[in-house]
Protein: Pentacotripeptide-repeat region of PRORP domain-containing protein
Amino acid sequence: MALFRKAEKLCGGEGKESMHVATYNAVIHGLLINGQAADAEAIPDVYTYTTIFDTLLQSNRPDAVMRMLDVMETAKIPANTATYTAIIDCLIRRKGEKNVRAALQLANKMEADGIPANEVTFTSLLAGVSRDDELPAMVQKQLVAEIMAKMTARGMEPNRVTQTFLLLAALKADSKTGIDQAMQIWREAIAEKGNPGHIPHPTYFILLTGLAKNERYDHVQEVMEYIYRSGWQPKGPLEKLIKQLSMEIALRG
Structure:
């Protein structure tokens, strides 16, 4: 907070509501470049840098990623997987194609610099893309494929968490291709372990809800019959959903 107070004082806006975030960021940026972060009695964290990054993106700067990294280097912020992943996660949570692509660009830059992205990095990217309602379905599909290609190239297999986000992205496509892709992900997941309990309740909930929304009751029946045959007993919201869908299918004849 001391860093922000110093920025506020230098802007002559202490206590005023008219101070704009871009003004703060410009002064904070200047303090960092001039090595005055220590004088301000504060060490900037990932949120500080993400805010500055956001301002650079809002200004439509094509060099936003490089400028951000320059600021971090000047402030002697350690360039490691954890730092990059934290900034990527903060950035991608802000939604919008511009932020998502900037996060991917940052991931590419860290790997180009010999800093390996890990499963946490890729899961964060997948989660952000899958949950982003502002992204067009085709863009979302393209970005998911790009992230998965990077994971595959590094020998990383989708875990239970990434499978959930892949399902979510596929079902959001609202197309036959998306539905087929979601079913393929599910079939591969159960073939791997042969046990429906291996897949988390939320994943089944997302899958069945998405299939029902698209009126693909043939696939709904396939999933539910597999669960029944296995003897696995769902609990809570998933159990209620299965009962509801069973009634809907019965009414449809």
